[in-house]
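Lab notes, practical 5.
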Amino acid sequence: MKIAIAGTGYVGLSLATLLSQNNEVIALDVIPEKVDMINQRKSPIKDEKIEEFFKEKNLNLKATLDYKEAFEGAEYIIISTPTNYDDEKNFFDTSSVEDIIQKVKNMQINTTMVVKSTVPVGFVKNMKEKYQIDNILFSPEFLREGKALYDNLYPSRIIVGEKSKRAEKFAELLKESAVKKDIVVKFMDSTEAEAVKLFANTYLALRVAYFNELDTYAEIKGLVSKDIIEGVGLDPRIGDHYNNPSFGYGGYCLPKDTKQLLANYDHVPQNLIRAIVRSNGTRKKHITKMIMKKNPEVVGIYRLTMKMDSDNFRASAIQGIIERLKKEDIKIIIYEPTLKVEEFNGCKVINDFKEFSDYSDVILANRFENVLEKVKDKVYTRDVYSRD
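Output from the prediction step:
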């Protein structure tokens, strides 16, 4: 079967790699460098499994800049283009998804579009009415940065937003390419599937925010955060996952998905969802205050990336702290090996670690790594477990 995938970020590239084991997959992107890298079997994103599959598997995968080449003859067109949150409109910017929908409609081809991009609740229903189409459904993804292909090979569940033969066939495509057996599959309306995605990510953000607020309490009161966390987590109803304190939740999904869910709650009673969104700002404000107490002249930022084994720093919490420190007239320098520039957001980038550490009065590290051991007296972190 021919399958087209629009967008080659974590979602699109992991699905392209997964499905090209058993199908002809054409991946569409607008960035020539990414297309070239994929065709040379070089992953444009950091993902160990994708890199492994590119080296070892005989994948029927091609990348292109030509949407007609990608879409023509494709039984399914998976849309995984970026949908950033627009703070002015209080809604996702879904223009990249709509652009693909319009292109497919204008081609007048017999295909089914599967939206994997995160969208507002009710998006697919609105698209059907707006463009007078029926060949579209939503299927949420549940992937971690740096482990996207692994999470497709061993999915927690597969959810498809339609109860139909074409939905069942799509679910079967995902199942047959996975390693995990006995995968739970749920079929529901696309609107419910869209809600599943936003509520799942907002719960994860809630958990991050909860343990961050626990850690804030411990820090201010002079308590051992780790002892409290472990005592709480031993309750089997709570568990010991997603409990490592941080500078705040960030990344591709949680900041924008929580804001979108809050926007979807317009005219619906709530307190908790708004609190989750606000909590992240409160945490960054607290971290900034604790740094200012050290009276630094120069603050070094050890990595803009917020997770281990990730090269993404979009919407990373550390950037919010940088902005707050800049308003306090603190000089900021950055150590981030993935950056090949001399300056980022008005801050000097120094990728010689010794020079960076010598120049810094305080080093902020969301996650503590071995290289920091020699300068740990300068390091400010809330990392308890050196993971996540």
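Observations recorded by the TA: The mean pLDDT is 94. Residues 2-188 form a domain with the Rossmann fold fold (CATH 3.40.50.720).
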